[in-house]
Design a protein that fits this description.
CATH class of the largest domain: Mainly Beta
CATH superfamily of the largest domain: Glycosyl hydrolase domain, family 43
Oligomer: single chain
Largest sheet: 5 strands, antiparallel
Helix content: under 10%
CATH architecture of the largest domain: 5 Propeller
Distance between the termini: 36 Å
Number of strands: 43
Shape: globular
CATH topology of the largest domain: Tachylectin-2, Chain A
């Protein structure tokens, strides 16, 4: 699919993770959260439900979402964790974690149409599957010791329990490196939390994705297991984890849903870890997925926080979603009106880490942040990611909060052109992404706050990210490298020689040399310590180099 020039008066051609919705301030939290997403296609619209919601979202394209508020006094279940949803005919069902009830609606466009039919038993982190035999299968579990379970329900009898619950899958961190806790799977003491089950029937088999080791760490991921029966048992797949995003701007991707878009392509929406202000400070992310010819389920997180094409009716998104844009703003020189403490310097908005941020000293109008890209570039899009610094804990989603700001660009640092004007902004969107008019060129970019910051917080930005077509020289080549399996087979060390023109490197590996989708993005080093492997499984490894001028893909493979 050819990248076309952006037009501010049409719907976007691309999107950029994190998913841009009005994330909620939870009572008692010092940050926003929406997590554990459940997406379902209903009457040609996408419905998105998430933890601790006061409603849900509806979209035509998976990029622009409209929030539908629910009366939570009437429907308190919507405020619980981890929703699961299902459509049978024209009826939509939803249930939640924490022993939530099952509700249904024959018109979910109307938020007052839900009917509570109770529950078969108490569950945590549920998921629904409607099978060809006319029964609904419920999968659930949230524990550091106990396995996941499955139960059979009868939708013709208000989801009466027919069979189960029975154990279907257990954790095994002694053999699966990705189940070890820690931001790099380095903690062998803390038991992993096994949760977030989701099951899809694909080509006659049942695929279970499950989340480990914990929502608060950068190694939060989804393993995958398979069964020939909806009631299991499920056998872990050798290409687990199917979803892994330990590095880059967004870190951690687990506990979500696998669903088909309008064109029959698979997508995975998952939970992103921030967990700085609060353990449940989280966002959502969306990646293309596929079932390969060999029966393995893959999710492509490569450059998963760079712009991607929205679902379209030509081609397939797994290899064609990447819009091919380069990040132009990493590590650029930055200045600001003020900065709070040493840990929140202007450079933190350009370090490609959503867990760090620039914070001004105040939340008032007029605070600004400016960066020099180092040279003039053609720019296709800009993403601004706001952070929460010193907010007043508050609950509720439709509470009048809105970001008000302007983004300006300049070629010389003297004459400024308006790129985005949100002076009168009414949206509470913390991860806005803008495609700019064709031919936009700039060297400098400047953000200026134009209103009082939400929730009494200080003006704070975790990422002011600028994207454009590859410009300048690409890295000369992919690096020469060496991959060595550790004495503990769950570990691997990859080292490489620096490449001229490289800004960073991407280590890719997998069990099939044609499907190397598990990846580590490394900036500023020539070494990766990887601890997410499975004992007894052999891996193919390669290393790419990249920069503003493009990517040099690794062609050499090593087998470890």
């Amino acid at each position: 699919m050819e990248l076309k020039s952006a037009d501010p008066f049409r719907r976007p051609a691309t999107f950029c993770n994190p998913v841009n919705i009005n994330y909620q301030y939870q009572p008692g939290y010092r940050g926003r959260e929406s997590a554990d997403p459940a997406v379902v296609l209903y009457k040609d619209k996408y419905f998105l439900f998430a933890s601790h919601g006061t409603g849900y979202w509806i979209s035509d394209d998976l990029a622009v979402w409209e929030f539908i508020r629910v009366d939570t006094a009437k429907y308190p279940d919507f405020t619980l964790f981890a929703p699961a949803t299902l459509v049978i005919g024209g009826r939509m069902y939803i249930t939640h974690c924490q022993g939530g009830n099952i509700l249904y609606s024959d018109d979910p466009f109307d938020p007052d149409s839900w009917v509570n039919i109770g529950k078969a038993y108490d569950w945590n982190d549920p998921a629904f599957l409607y099978d060809d035999d006319g029964y609904v299968y419920l999968y659930e579990g949230l524990d550091r010791v106990r396995p996941l379970h499955a139960a059979k329900l009868d939708p013709a009898d208000n989801m009466r329990l027919v069979e189960g619950p029975v154990a279907i899958f257990s954790s095994d961190h002694d053999n699966r490196g990705y189940e070890r806790h820690g931001n790099n799977n380095e903690d062998g003491v803390t038991l992993p939390c096994l949760e977030g089950a989701w099951v899809n029937k694909l080509n006659g088999r049942y695929y279970l994705t499950y989340a480990v080791p914990g929502t608060e760490v950068s190694t939060y991921c989804d393993g995958v297991a398979v069964s020939d029966s909806p009631m299991g048992p499920f056998i872990n797949c050798d290409n687990s984890p199917a979803v892994f995003k330990n590095t880059g701007f967004m870190r951690g991707a687990g506990h979500g849903c696998l669903f088909e878009d309008k064109h029959g392509n698979l997508w995975k929406m998952d939970t992103v870890s921030i967990s700085v202000n609060h353990i449940f400070e989280r966002r959502l992310c969306l990646f293309p997925a596929k079932l390969a010819a060999d029966g393995r389920l893959y999710v492509n997180t490569l450059r998963g926080d760079y712009p991607m094409f929205l679902p379209h009716d030509t081609g397939e998104p797994f290899t064609q979603a990447d819009a091919g844009l380069s990040l132009l703003s990493y590590g650029r020189a930055a200045v600001a009106s003020s900065s709070l403490y040493g840990a929140h310097a202007p450079s933190c908005a350009f370090d490609e880490n959503m867990k760090t941020w620039w914070s001004a000293c105040y939340g008032a109008e007029g605070e600004w942040l400016e960066a020099d890209l180092g040279r003039e570039y053609e720019v296709f899009s800009v993403q601004i990611n706001f952070a929460d610094q010193d907010i007043v804990p508050c609950g509720g989603r439709d509470n009048g909060f809105a970001y008000k700001y302007t983004l300006e660009g300049s070629r010389d640092g003297e004459a400024w052109e308006m790129l985005v004007d949100r002076t009168d902004g009414r949206d509470d969107l913390s991860h806005e992404y803008f495609e700019l008019p064709s031919g936009t060129r700039l060297r400098y970019i400047r953000f200026t706050n134009r209103g009082i910051f939400p929730a009494g917080g200080k003006v704070a930005i975790s990422g002011l990210r600028v994207f454009g077509p590859p410009q300048g020289a690409a890295p000369e080549q992919a690096p020469e490298f060496r991959a060595e399996r550790g004495v503990d087979e769950r570990d691997m060390t990859v080292t490489w020689t620096p490449v001229r023109g490289a800004e960073g490197y991407i280590v890719r590996f997998g069990v099939d040399p044609a499907e190397l989708h598990t990846q580590y993005q490394i900036i500023g080093e020539e070494r990766a310590e990887i601890r997410s492997l499975i004992r007894g499984v052999k891996y193919h490894v390669t290393v790419d180099s990249y920069g503003p001028g493009g990517i040099a893909k690794g062609t050499e493979l090593q087998y470890v």
